[in-house]
Each structure stands twice: as C-alpha cells, then as structure tokens.
C-alpha cells in the first residue's frame, strides 16, 4: 500500500450535556481526524483522542498534529509502497511517547489496508462476538439530576452497566443513592480520575458495602505503590486507567498488585495493535474492558470492534452516539436492548457523513495532496 494523500480535519461537536469529572468539565468534543488516500484507491480514517489543552495527558491536539506532521507521517511515507499499519508501528518505535498521535495514524492505516483486503477490523483483530454490551459513564452532577439520569439510562435505555465519576466529598452518597435506585445486582462502578490520596483510604473503604464492580483510578497516575497499598485495604477491586500505556506497563502494574482489572484505551496505549497485545498477554491474568474518550462514531466503531475480543469480559465505556451527540459525524452508533452490533463492513466499518463532517469541521490542513484533497482545502 502506498500513501498518496494525507489531510487533517479539526472538528467540533457540542455535547448533549456537559460532562464533569474531578479534573475538568467538557462542553463539546474537539477532535483531530486524519484522512488517508492510497494509490490503491482506498480511504482510511483515524481519530486522535488527545484533548485540546493536554489536561488529561501530556499530549494535546496541537502536539499530536506537530509530531504527526514532522515525524510520524514522513516516517510512514518513507516506507514507499510497503506501507502497512504493522510496518508503521515498527518504525514509530523510533519516536518516544506520543501514543495518541501514533494511535490516530495507525487507525487510519488499518482502515485503509483492511478496506483494500475487504476485511473488517473486528475480523482482523480476532473478534469472537457479534455484539457487545453497552455501558454508560455519568459525570458529576447534582443529586436529583444524577438520580434521573441514572434512572433514564438503566430503566429506559437499558444500558448494561452504570459508571459514575466521583471526587472527595462526592462519593459515598451518590453510590448509596444509586444502589437504592437500581438494587444490589446492577453492575455499578466508580471512577476517581486520580482525585484521591492514601489519606482517603478509610473513606474509599466505605464504598465496599455497595458491591461495586471496581474503583477506577482512585490515586494519581504515577502512584503504583500507593495503589498497591490501597488495594490491601479495600474489598472493591482497583482498576488502573491512565498508567497503562503499554503491555509492559500492564504487566508491571499487575505484578506489583496495583491493579486487579485493566481499562484499555487504544489511544492511550498507542493504537489497536498494542491494545490487542495487552489483551492477548494480560487477558488470562485479570479482567479487561475497553475504555472510551468521547470518541466520534469513527473511534467508537473501532472500539466496539476491539471490545468484541474474547478477554474483554467486563462491560466497557461503549455507548450509543446519542449519549453524547445530537449529530455524530458518522451514521449513529446505536444500541438495541443494551447491546451494540460489531461493525462488519471492511475497515473500521463506518465513514463520515459528508454533510455532518463539513458541519463539524473547523479547519482543514492538507499534508500530502491528491487533487481531491487540494480542492477540498480550497473550498
């Protein structure tokens, strides 16, 4: 496969409702999309999950764009007509860090090459299911609003798992309310986004009585020792998120006793190939699930394909498009009876709707031009 065109699109999608965590509040989703064209006539799409300001990680949208322009795309083009996602992944090891930028380009390459092979991403990765259960993540909000939101998603929409964001002072009370509302058997988990310290261990232990699936990322990203110590005091399993950026990180965290569950986000670990490696190596050691980062329909469809692998046994952050967007840039990802169908079309299985994409696009940059891309840039 040979690359003949590369274009960036910066898109802006308003959220249906603000999404508040212990770290930030999002009112809209800004994303960097990559469109590739190949000499074989294929188009591939990738989505970078880096946030505009780098609050979530050291990467930002602009830093990702910079490393893509200056290093990752030129390295890929140097492969000539031997370009594959696997070959690109190998040369990307020459660039330290920047997993979200790498993941975005890898996704676009996978989409193009699998369309050329007439193979779906799910089949390529080794999916074992035709549909995956949908889980919903609920931000921090007033108690009455939280009650009605959870009621809506569980009883009306029939999501298979509820996750709520927590922070010091907003933890035991909302969990108690949700347990009373949903009963003892509903899968419920919480996410601290690193807002707690070991000094909060007694407070976090109060959550043990509510039979949670897990406490996700209670302590700071770099505090593996603290997580291992906290795990000794809690009955509720700890799940790590942000510290897991590679298979080696995952094995290290498991070996230290810092985590009993892994949240795998393709953008955070450098792409779907590394995510599959973590699945294959760690899936028989601890339970796994696929996390989300408010992806558009492009990244959401690819995440659903990943979640269909055998060892992703826990319900992930895989929700319908309508959970976040009035209008997605693809045909909506939909849920039926709490399940989302795994895409079966070639590549990631979806593509942008031209009208929706144009409406969401705020800027376009042609890195390597085909005539069609140059015309798009002028328009």
List unreliable stretches of 5+ residues. 374-379
Provide the gyration radius in Å.
20 Å
Dominant shape: globular
Task: Quickly give the structural class.
Answer: alpha/beta
Which architecture name of the largest domain does CATH use? Alpha-Beta Barrel
| Biggest β-sheet description | 7 strands, parallel
CATH superfamily of the largest domain: Enolase-like C-terminal domain
Q: In percent, how helical is the residue content?
A: 25-40%
The helix/strand order is EEEHHHHEEHEHEHEHEHEHHEHEHEH
**Overall tally of structural domains:** 2
Q: Tally the helices: what do you get? A: 14
CATH fold assignment of the largest domain: TIM Barrel
What's the multimeric state? single chain
* Strand proportion: 15-25%
- CATH C-level name of the largest domain: Alpha Beta
**CA-CA gap between termini:** 28 Å
- The strand count comes to 13
Mean pLDDT comes to 95
Describe the fold and architecture.
By secondary structure, the protein is an alpha/beta fold. The protein has two domains: 3-118 and 353-378, Enolase-like, N-terminal domain (Enolase-like, domain 1), CATH 3.30.390.10; 123-341, TIM Barrel. Helices cover 36% and strands 20% of the residues. It has helices spanning 61-77, 85-92, 99-116, 121-125, 143-156, 172-182, 201-205, 224-231, 247-256, 266-269, 272-282, 297-307, 354-360, 371-378, and strands at 3-20, 25-38, 43-48, 131-133, 135-138, 161-165, 188-191, 215-216, 238-240, 261-264, 288-290, 339-341, 361-368. The strands form three sheets. Strands 5-6-7-8-9-10-11 form a seven-stranded parallel beta sheet. A four-stranded antiparallel beta sheet has the order 3-2-1-13. Strand 8 (215-216), helix 8 (224-231) and strand 9 form a beta-alpha-beta unit. The chain starts with a strand and ends with a helix.
